[in-house]
Structure formats: structure tokens, C-alpha cells
Design a protein that fits this description.
alpha+beta; flat
Length: 60
Amino acid sequence: MNNEDIKLRDEERSRCEVWTRVMGYHRPIDDFNIGKKGEHAERVYFEEKLTCEDRLFCDK
């Protein structure tokens, strides 16, 4: 059986609780007020790229 064979009905699904770090501690975003929920939705995520100095071996 592969993942494509698995089908869930809506009543079989469970709600996913999303947490994020705010002011140094973690909180579920469902507890946020409307303004904080808006700030969370506008966040921009980035992926840090490794530099040559961060790698064990570097092509020079």
C-alpha cells in the first residue's frame, strides 16, 4: 500500500494545532488576538544558505 491509496473522510480527520514562538516562549496561534493572527499570516520565512566557512570541505 502506498500513500496514494490512503483516503480519509472529513469526519476521520483531526485538527492540527499550530504553535509559534512569541516573545521567547511558545503559544498556539489559535489563542492569538486578531492583530497577532494578522502578523503571523504576514511573516516571511527564509532559508539560510551555508557559506564556504560553514562547510567542512569547500571547493576553492
